[in-house]
Design brief:
single chain, alpha+beta, twelve-stranded mixed sheet, 20 helices
Length: 619
Amino acid sequence: MFVREDGKKSGEVPGRIRRLLRGPRPERVPAVVGTACAVIGLLDLSSGIFPRLRNSRLHALAEVLPGAVSPLAAAASIVVGLLLLMLAHGLKRHKRRAWMLAVAVLPFSAAAQLLYRHSPLGMLISLSLLALLVAHRREFVALPDPRSRWRALAAFLLLGGASVVLGLVIVDAHPGSVVGDPSVLDQLEHVVCGLFGFTGPVSYRGDSDDLVGYSLGALGLLTASVTAYLAFRPEHPTARLTPEEEDRLRALLAVHGGRDSLGHFALRRDKSVVFSPSGKAAVCYRVVCGVMLASGDPIGDVEAWPGAIERFMELARAHSWTPAVMGCGETGGEVWTRETGLDALELGDEAIVDVADFTLAGRAMRNVRQMVGRIERAGYTTRVCRAAELDAEELAAIRRAAADWRGTDTERGFSMALGRIGDPADGDAVIATAHKAAPEGHDPGPYGDLRAVLHFVPWGVDGMSLELMRRDRSADPGMNELLIVAALRAAPDLGVKRVSLNFAMFRSALARGERLGAGPVLRGWRGLLIFLSRWFQIESLYKFNAKFQPRWEPRFVVYRNTSELPRIGFAAMHAEGFVSLPRPRLPRLPRVSRRGGVRADARRPEAAEAPAREVSQAA
C-alpha cells in the first residue's frame, strides 16, 4: 500500500470492495435476511393481488424474487408472500424453526424460477439467499418461545380476518372482468365460499375466474394449515412456578429474605425461575412479548448472584429474548451491569418507613393526623394481624371484598405484587382491615362491617412490604391512611421494624422539578409526568407516599440497548396489567332453571386478587 499525491491510500477502495463481497457481518445476517424476506413478501403479495402491478415495472421486479413461480401463479404468490412476512420476524430473532422452513422453501423456489419462468436471475436471487442462510446457520440457534393452545385460536382469528380482507380486495381487483354488478354482500359471500373451496355468486370473464378462485382457495388452505399446525404441535407451557421451585425459593428467602423488600414477590406463581449452579441464588422472570423480564434483585446469597444471572442470560440468548430487569435495587443493579455489560436507568423510588422513627406528631404529619382522627371519630375501627390468625371464613370474605373492590377488570401488578391473599403458605403475611357497623335498619351488605383491606407480605424476619390496598367505594375517604397508620402502630407487637410502602415512579424528577431554581428541561419533564398522571398513577403515588415522611430507596430498570427501551416499556406495562391483550372467549349460554325460566348465574367466578403497590383511590 502506498499514498498517492492526493493523500488517499491506494488500497482503500479495493478494501471496501472486498468487505462488500464478503457480505454482512455474521451478527447482522438475521436482521438482513429478515428484512429481505419482509420486502420480498410485500412485493409478492402486491403482485399476486393487483393485476395492474403484474403488468407494471414493479411486477417485473417481483417476478425475479422468491415466490413468483409462474406467470399465472398469483395464488401461490399471495401465499408465499404471507409466509415470508410471517418468517421475517422469526429470522430477525435468530429462530431455528424459521431458518429451517426458509431453507426448505428456497430450493423449490429456485427450481420453479428456472423451470417455469426460465428466469436465471430469479433462480440466482433464491440461491443467493439460500447460500447466505446456510453459510451463517450458526446464527439461527434460538429456541421457540413458550406457547399454549390459545395461539392456535389467535392465529385462526387473525389469519381468517386477514384472508377475508384480502379476499375482498382480490374479488374487487378485477372490475373489467366481473359479470354484472354484484353487491358487497355477494362479494363477501363469494370470499367466504372461496376460502372453503366452493364457488360463490360472483362470475368473471376469461382467466380471472380461475385466478380469483385459486387465490381464495390458497388463502383458506394457508389459514387451515397454520391453525392445525399450531393446535397439534407439542405444547410448551407458559410461566408457572412449580411447588418444588417454590420450596427452594422459600428456603432462600428464609436466610436472605431481608436483603430486598421485593423478595417475597418472587413467589408469584405465574413466573419462571432459574437457579445458580450452586443453588444458592435464583432469578425469577416472565417472558412478555419477546422480553425476558426479571423483577427485583436476585434471590439468595449475593456471592452466588453472578451464577444465577449467567444462567438467565444464557436462557435469553438461547431463545433470542430481550433481557431486562424491572425494579432492582442499587446493589442488584451494580451486579447486573457488572456481570452482563447491560446498562441501568433510574426508574423511581421506593418509600420505606422505619417504625421506630414514625410518629404522628409535628407539623409535617398534621394532615394525616387530622384525617385519621376524623375517621376514628366517625366510628371506624381497625384490626392488624397475621394471616394465619384469621379463620377460613374471614379470609374468604376478605378475598371476595378485595376482588370486588379492585375497580378494574384486569389484574394489575407483576414486579411488586403477589397476586393472592390468605394462601396457607403465606401465613406470615399481615392483613390490616377497617370496620364500621352499618346504621340500624340498613343492609350491612355482602361483607358485613368490612370497609377496607391492606395486605403486607414478609420482608425478612423484621419487615413487611405493602402488596395490596382495597377499600369500599362507599366508605369515607382516608381508609388507606387509617390502615397504614394502624399497621405502623401495630408493627412493634408483630416484630416489624421497617415497612415498605408504594413505589413512586420518577419520584426524583417530580421532587426536583418543583423546587425553586429548577431549569426549563427539568420543569418540562415534570410537566410531562403530571400530564401522564391523568392515565397513570405517577404524581398521586408520590404525594401519597410523601405523607408518611419515608426514606426513599432508588429502583432501576436494567436494559441492553437504548433502542430496546420502548419494547421493554410495553412489555412491562403488559406484565403490570396497564396494557391488556384479552384472550378470546366463547359466549356463555344462559342457564335454564327447572321451571323453564332463564336466570343469571348468581355465583361469580372468584377473581384473582389484583396486585397493588398502587393506590387505587388516593384521598
